[in-house]
Amino acid sequence: MHFLARIFDHLEKQPERCKLVEVHGTELREHDGGVMLGLIARARAFVAAAGVQPGDRVALLAPNSVRWVCADLAVLACGAIVVPLYDKQEPRELAVMLRSAEPVLLLAGTRELADTIAAAWPEHGRIATLDEVFEHEPSKAGLHDIAEHDPVAIIYTSGTSGEPKGVVLDRGNLDFMVPRIIGRLDMVAGKREGGDRVFHFLPLCFAASRMMLWTQLSRPNPLMMSTDLTNLVQEMATAKPNYFLNVPAVLERIRNGVNAKLRERGGIALSIYERGVKAWRAQLEGRAGFVDRIALGVARKLVFDKVKQTIGPNLDFLISGSAPLSEDTQRWFQMIGIAVYQAYGLTETTGLVSLDEPDRTVPGRVGIALPGVEAKITDEGELVVRGPNIFSGYWRKPEETAKVLRDGWFHTGDQMDILEGNLKIIGRIKNLIVPESGHNIAPEPLEEKFMAACPAATQCMVVGHARPFVAIVLPGKPPADQVDRALEQINAELPAYRRIRRAIYVDDAFTVDNGLLTANQKLRRAVIEGHFKPQIDAAYEAVKAERAKPDAGASAAS
Predict the structure, then answer these.
(1) Rounded distance between C-alpha atoms, residue 426 and residue 428, angstroms
(2) pLDDT value at position 55?
């Protein structure tokens, strides 16, 4: 039974377990398998009436909702290919993807969204709203027979540089991956009577989100979905999840927010917390004495446990993906009693390559490859992967496909190392900075070190390619004294060629709206460098001028 047939079987036979729950503020709105099948039948009838044939592309552009999922499943049930798109992406970027995919039908969440995309994509085919879709009389058609190598989704990559590429995933990719993710989740979460409380807030158009959705429906296990990211704190309090998928930026914000509140409150709670943190570090380093153990016990009882209750009273663990999580932040969550398991994957690997195993978790590493997935490091330090999870190619881009699928291996473009099977991300190979000294420098570890040393900074990006030295771009203008202390701290541990010699303060934050971040919050490095080129050039020129002054060269480079 293939993955889609299994989901439909669960919807019919286990409707109380195979269900979705929308979180609306303090309210939980359940949609069991029977309700979902009714919605899917309406969507199937609409799609068929629109003339969609097996193998056609249907784009889905809407925020997360039960209707989104039912439309998705309906298109798949017809044998068509879903092209999920991010509703917050710039219309001009969406238009590029739509011209590439050429869908015969686009399903939009709202009339406003439909009109916006129609204006950006004048040559569009039929566009319908989800309201229209679910007003249709239901269909009684069965599942279309989907072959193993039939495409089921074209998911467009973020496009950190250049034009986005459509990653083609077929039924075989999902047949392989879904049970392996279920197996690793069972290892991490155990099998809870009555199922897990799983919350999800990341857009369902992303590969990892789709795998979370299909995995929970295939277990079967209810999935609770956010409906308002501006009200995320309230939604999580209502959902009371056992675990949920995260990105590092959210976990960093949680940690920094807790620290800021404790500092603001001050008093005995802050003193106990700070002493507990010192004791925790001593324990990790194997030098904790009797006083440390007492201090740690007091901190856990009076502060750490309360922090955990505030973050999530039922949280057993968190899963973090999309980018490496700093070791300090992973250990901080461990300190307050919440395990964080890291995952690694790309859209081209059907969302996942590795996920931490509880007994083999190493902070700062991104886990062990799933069973059946092979991973190795090339002589150049690049991670290459092969297995049934590897995509079949980029949509209508054979030359781009040939660049990454070579000799049976998918070349990830990530510089990594492996220790006893446990992967560690060093950085993107294409992001390597080569300053005038000729050294190869991965910017990501430096950025991670800086963010850990300077809590006042919310974002940063290291620059210095073909420049005399490495510098760091800082939006939001964090206090200069804190930045200077952080740079002094991390530079003391670095060889001269890797030291960050200059902080470049800029006004504009890196956001999706201004095009400096991708839809899944990754830095668009080339775009950022171009956007702030005048400030970056000015900073290097200022140092050059300082060095030109008598007796100033040494101090400018120190």
Answers:
(1) 7
(2) 98
